[in-house]
Description:
This protein has helices spanning 15-20, 33-45, 60-68, 83-96, 113-122, 156-164, 181-187, 201-214, 234-244, 264-280, 302-309, 320-330, 354-372, 374-403, 408-440, and strands at residues 2-3, 23-28, 50-54, 72-75, 102-105, 126-128, 143-149, 169-175, 191-195, 219-222, 248-252, 298-301, 335-339. By secondary structure, it is an alpha/beta fold. The protein folds into three domains: 2-128, Rossmann fold (3-Layer(aba) Sandwich); 143-369, Spore Coat Polysaccharide Biosynthesis Protein SpsA, Chain A (Alpha-Beta Complex); 373-440. A seven-stranded mixed sheet has the order 9-8-7-10-12-11-13, sandwiched between helices. Helix 8 crosses helix 11 (302-309), helix 13 crosses helix 14 and helix 14 (374-403) runs antiparallel to helix 15. The longest helix is centred in the last third of the chain and has 33 residues, at 408-440. It is globular, with a radius of gyration of 27 Å. Mean pLDDT is 82; it is low at 1-16.
Amino acid sequence: MSNETLTGENYNYKLKELKELPAIGLVATDQNSGDIARSVLRATEQGYRVFVTYDDTPNKEAVRFANKLGADVVTPSVGNSDRDDLRDALKTTSQSLSFPGLIIHTGTGRIDFDRSRSMFKEGGYCVDAITESEQEFENETSTLAAVPAYNEVDTIGQVVADANDQADAVLVVDDGSDDRTAERAREAGATVVEHDVNSGYGAALKTTFVEAHRRNVDHLVILDGDGQHDASDIPKLVATQEESDVDIVIGSRFAKGSETEMPLYRRFGLAVVNGLTNLSMGVVRKRSRVQDTQSGFRAYNEQAIESLATDSSIGDHMNASTDILYHAHQHDYEIEEVGTTINYDVEDASSHNPVSHGFVLVSNILKTVERDRPITSLGVPGFVSAFAGLGFGYWTFSNYISTGTFPMSLAITSAFFTLAGIFSCFTAIILHSLSRQLYND
């Protein structure tokens, strides 16, 4: 990757602005070449430094015009016009010039600089631009239905239409779809926020919380874009939240009133994940348990929206649903569940393999328990292991004294359990001390 000369009037920026503002990186393609000039003008007017690179297809005239408008062109090397290579080239150029970060825009639409900068502050060095919605919500938006979507072109229109009948407004977060999901959602009447690349279900959820908090909505209801959730249950979730004054309401497949039919293997897998999730939060009593920890059909009130919008610990992928429950538990939020029916017979339903998804969820739960509850997860089992090792040791010496023969297998077993238990106990103590230190800080 090589750069054209980056000198001259394009460098005429104040030092303070260079230190405070991230750079803007644009990738010109056949689809967005007509929007490049507008993006450059709007960015430079607001004091941003703009870098433009391009793939094999765009109108070169648009790139040359962008350069005349003040953008610096990063010329791709021959054979390195893959989208990831172009992003890396923009990032390398930005870092070489000591910019604090880079906001990359590869699609169409007007960049919302304020929201993109807020995402930049919460994320890493390089973030995807958030585009302005073509349709803004009314000032008085009580209930917002939000739909994280990825390649849901066949179902998103109906989902938006159904949700529009039940909520004041509908927001679709298009997580880098490579089909016409965003276009169909807009046609159906939704406000659309687009991620330039597929960042994961959790990343889309975090964008919905940020958007809902920015618009000061009273209730945020999340539902899937594949049509599995029944949008007519939105008022039921909101009414339960208002009547019970709880922070989160979950549309549950296992609560009274649900008529969800699911395969036995899925029911068993969910029972395991639900049990582990509740245990990892220290919830033992049945009435305090969350029956459906993996339901994505949830309603959040203003308080929950605000705290979740600023929580960087929420994962970017499918484990985000569990992370949100951990967040709620740590903040002592009240949770209530209402029965809802999930339709697993819809076409193009979630393509996640339930077995691999289950393993990922269990792994995330175990890591969380190890981090947040080291005494419970490591200390107690370690003590039991060490105690068992001492028992085997007593048995070993009793046999030796009574028979005169040293039982090597029992001795090895005793040593293994004792050492493993001691190691586990010390690890638990260290992790507990570290977690307390971090908490106090």
